[in-house]
C-alpha cells in the first residue's frame, strides 16, 4: 500500500543508541527549560506592551479580519491510544465500530496525529503480525494495534481515494458499518475549495508535469513529475477562460491549514511501547506539552482557561482497560514508578464519575471536551464556511 508521508510515512528514531529512559529524562529537562524561557518571554512582552500603551495611547491593533490564519502560529494536537482496547470488543463488527468511534472523535476535536501504542509489552498473549515497514517504520505489531491503525487511516482517507490505497483486507471487512467522518478534506465532486487531496495517476503528461485524480469529473494537471500511486495535496488554480484543462500545484500537506485555518485530517503512527510515544515524535524537539489522563490525576477543573495554550505540539495520552499504570509497568525501559512523572500534567478529566470505569473511547470525548478551553488557540482552526458546496449559488 502506497501513500503520502503525511498519513503513511515511517517515523524513525534518531536516538537509537540511547536508552529510552535517558531520552525521556532529556525531554523533561528540555520541557522545563522551555517553560522557563516562555515565562520570561511573557514577562518581557507584558512589560513592553505596558510601556507601549503608556507612550502611544492612540495605537490601534489589527482587526480580526486582518489577522489571517496564515499569520497564526501552527499548533498541533496529538492523542495516543492503546491498541488493546480492540481486544475488549466481543466481535469483529464491534472491533471495527470501536475503531470508527476513535476516528470520529479525532476528527470532531481536530486532532492532527493519532498514535496507536502497545500497552501490553511482553505480557500480551496475542500474536504479532507483519506491517508495512515503509508505512509505520516497524516490521511487526500486535494485531489489535495494526487493525486499529489501518481502520483509522481508512477513515481519514477521502472516499474517492480509498480504492487505490486500501485493497481488500480482513481488517476492513466491516468498515461499511462505520459512520463517515465527513471531514473538510472529504470533498464531494461538486464542492469548491482551494485545496484537494489526490492520487498521482499514470496518464501520460508533459515533461515536468503529472496527472492527479482529485475527485473531480476528470484528472487535473500539476506542476511536478511525480511517481504514480502516491497521495498528494493539491492547491487548485483558477480556470482560464476558454480552456477546459484544470491545473493545480502540489503543496505540503499542512498548507491548507496554514493558509486557510481549516482542519485537514490526522496522521497515524504506531508505537511499540509507551516510551516510544514520546521518543519517536515526528516534530522537531518533540512535544512541548504532555498530558496523561487518569482517575488518580489532578482535577481538570482546577486548571484555568487558556492555561495550556502556550505550546506548539501538545500530546494527550489515554490508558487502556488497566490504565496508564499498567502500560508503564509493561514497558521495561521506563525507569519510573509513577506515570505522572512522564507528563507535564496528569489529569482526571471526569471527576466524581458515576460509573466504576470509563471506556477509552468515552475518555477521549470527555477529555478533549474538558481540555478544549484549556488548550485555547490549539483548537481555534477553520470551519466549513470556507467550502462552497454544489447546492449553493
TrEMBL record:
Region: Disordered, residue numbers: 1-22, 43-69
SUPFAM superfamilies xref list: alpha/beta knot (SSF75217), Nucleic acid-binding proteins (SSF50249)
Biased composition (Basic and acidic residues): 43-65
Family: Belongs to the class IV-like SAM-binding methyltransferase superfamily.
Descriptive protein name: Uncharacterized protein
